[in-house]
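ok, trying the design again with the full structure, not the truncated one.
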């Protein structure tokens, strides 16, 4: 009995230690390379690697992969409206869209220095009282909620004002409720804080 038990125990320990040593899976290198190639179409507005050079255009770097893919699918289906984006996304194959989402999710966003520390401090208090429950303490979001950390302030301000007024194509009752009582100064402060987050 002992002769059987010890080899069995040793085998189990070997299997268990092999699993413990397994490295964290890395993204598919081929998909990443293909995503980078397909994303060349995006760089004119969203910047190289997804760090936008235009203040009215969102950063895509570091955004959640599943969230990005969902937004692209919404452009394809017409749930999100933008003539240029709809045409561009529809021209991509499903595989290309998936690879682009993976590529941008793996990029580091280029963070700009804080323009106004007092505004950012006020924005932090607002964020912690209004936004943290959905967007998280780091503002990195989830598969369904966008990353806001390090985002372009003018883009954030425009988005928040559209949610507040209900004038955008992305009507969201929850966002409308949370932005309804925000003053313009609050929106500026929130965007300053979010832009400062790493």
């Amino acid at each position: 009995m002992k002769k059987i038990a010890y080899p069995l125990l040793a085998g189990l320990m070997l299997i268990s230690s092999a699993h413990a040593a397994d490295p964290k899976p890395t993204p598919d290198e081929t998909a990443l390379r293909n995503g980078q190639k397909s994303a060349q179409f995006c760089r004119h507005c969203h910047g190289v690697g997804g760090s936008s050079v235009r203040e009215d255009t969102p950063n895509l770097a570091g955004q959640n992969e599943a969230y990005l893919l969902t937004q692209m699918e919404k452009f394809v289906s017409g749930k999100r409206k933008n003539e240029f984006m709809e045409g561009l996304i529809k021209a991509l194959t499903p595989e290309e869209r998936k690879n682009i989402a993976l590529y941008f999710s793996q990029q580091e966003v280029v963070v700009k220095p804080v323009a106004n520390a007092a505004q950012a401090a006020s924005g932090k208090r607002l964020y912690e009282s209004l936004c943290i429950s959905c967007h998280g303490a780091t503002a990195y979001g989830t598969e369904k909620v966008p990353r806001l950390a390090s985002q372009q302030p003018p883009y954030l301000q425009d988005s928040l004002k559209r949610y507040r007024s209900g004038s955008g194509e992305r009507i969201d009752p929850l966002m409308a409720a949370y932005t309804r009582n925000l003053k313009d100064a609050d929106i500026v402060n929130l965007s300053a804080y979010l832009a400062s987050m790493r």
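Keeping the full-length input from now on. The two ends are 59 Å apart (CA to CA).
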